[in-house]
Amino acid sequence: MSTTHHTLRERLAVLRGPDTAARPLDARALAALAANPGCRRRSLLDAAGVDKGAVAEALGAPARFGQSRFAFSRGHAFEARVKADGCAELLRLLGADGERAEVPDLGAAGPEGRTARTRLALAEAPRGRWTLLDHPLLALDVAGSTVFLEPDAVAVAPDGAWTVVEIKSFPILDGAADAMKVGAAARQAAVYVLALDAVEPGRTRSDILLVCPKDFSNLPTADSVDVRKQLAVTRRQLTRLTRIEEIAALLPEGTTFDPAAPRPALAASVDAVPAAYAPECLSSCELAFHCRERARAADSVEALGRALRADLGALTTLEAVRAAALAPPGAPTDDPAVLALRRAAALRAEALATAEAS
Questions:
Q1: Which residues 6+ apart lie within 8 Å of 120 measured at CB?
Q2: For residue range 1-58, what is the model confidence (pLDDT) as tens digits?
Q3: Bridge partners, residue 225, by sequence
Q4: What span, in angstroms and rounded, lies between the C-alpha atoms of 250 and 272?
Q5: Among candidate residues 153, 147, 164, the one with its CA nearest the CA of residue 203
Q6: What is the pTM of this model?
Q7: φ and ψ at 71, to 5 degrees?
Q8: Tens digit of each residue's pLDDT (9 = 90 or more) over 74-109
Q9: 332 DSSP 8-state letter
């Protein structure tokens, strides 16, 4: 371990709080981070293992999403059924009905030990028979910080190919599942494929096995999902993330993300890290409601969405947008966004005049 990395780890521990345990960054959070690589705030807090939900509570802007306890328990029960009897159901879904598989023990001390044990199990998987890794631990470098990832399972086929297995509790009804949920699962699985590629490139199949309940029963069924598109997007977006040490180096002395800190100090620390808020964050980031409040207070067009923000170009505030739209038609400008706003305002005025006349 380099001195720089060691120093960074200590710095992140200080930012997190001396008595606060690091919250591991999972594939779901990493997929959401990759979808918004410009958000330095999320990059830093996730790398430091900050509990963003606790921070949002302390700031008075708690997140309003998450999995219910019932859904969590149902998911665990379904996964246990899929993996019961030596993973017999999972083998059936993989096309190896009636066969038995090696299920190596992946237990080890600490995440580094578990990661090393997973690598060893992948390397020692015998050819000619199935090997199933139950909750292996993988490591991935993200913006200069190591992230540990835990897929539901990884199957090693007799030919040596690796397949990521995602077990979800949402149903496949009449052969089809909710497209948004399948898309989220595909993005999450793409992160696991990326981590496996870091172990040995080319060994992991690009189509993952998505296991879900069939119709309204608890009977497992499966579908193959091609994640090549999600893999390419995730790989490209992660390379765009600003390195964590660069973000941390710009923070003022005394910055803390400890939820137990006084609210003014905590709010000032959070706001010291630039964010890239968009309405899409509301379904994936615990700090989204705080960021939305700040975006609205700053009259920022980011609150309207990434697509509209890109279309507006140099117009960064709602006041600037209103001023551009209401400017006299003959006012000189070569900004296409301003011209479009003036045209839209003229059409709106014309429509309102027609409605009043009728």
A1: none
A2: 333 445 777 888 899 987 888 887 788 888 888 888 889 999 899 888 899 999 999 9
A3: 208
A4: 9
A5: 164
A6: 0.74
A7: -65, -35
A8: 888 999 999 999 899 999 999 998 888 999 999 999
A9: -
Tokens of 206: 């690009």
CA-to-CA distance for 130 and 197, rounded, in angstroms? 20
CB atoms under 10 Å from CB of 229, counted, come to 12
> Do residues 45 and 247 lie in contact, with contact meaning Cβ atoms separated by under 8 Å?
no
Q: At what angle do helices 69-82 and 84-93 cross, to 10 degrees?
A: 80
Q: What dihedral angle (degrees, nearest 10) is formed by the CA atoms of 252, 254, 255, 260?
A: -170
DSSP-derived letter for residue 173 is B
Q: 149 has which bridge partners?
A: 138
Report the candidate in 226, 177, 213, 216 with the shortest Cα–Cα distance to residue 89.
213
**Residue 216, burial from CB neighbour count under 10 angstroms (0-12, 13-18, 19+):** exposed
d(CA 167, CA 118): 19
CA distances from 233 to 15, 27, 35, 95 (A): 30, 14, 8, 30
Round to whole Å and give the CA distance between 108 and 227.
Answer: 30
Amino acid at site 144? G
Chain centroid offset of residue 106 CA: 25
Q: Can you say how many angstroms the Cα of residue 161 is from the centroid of all Cα atoms in its chain?
A: 26
Query: How many angstroms separate the CA atoms of 150 and 25, rounded?
Result: 10
DSSP 246-285: HHHHTSPTT----TTS-HHHHHHHHHTS-----GGGGGT-
Which two tokens mark 303?
A: 């609150």
Both tokens assigned to 287: 């700090």
What pLDDT is stored for residue 65 in this prediction?
66
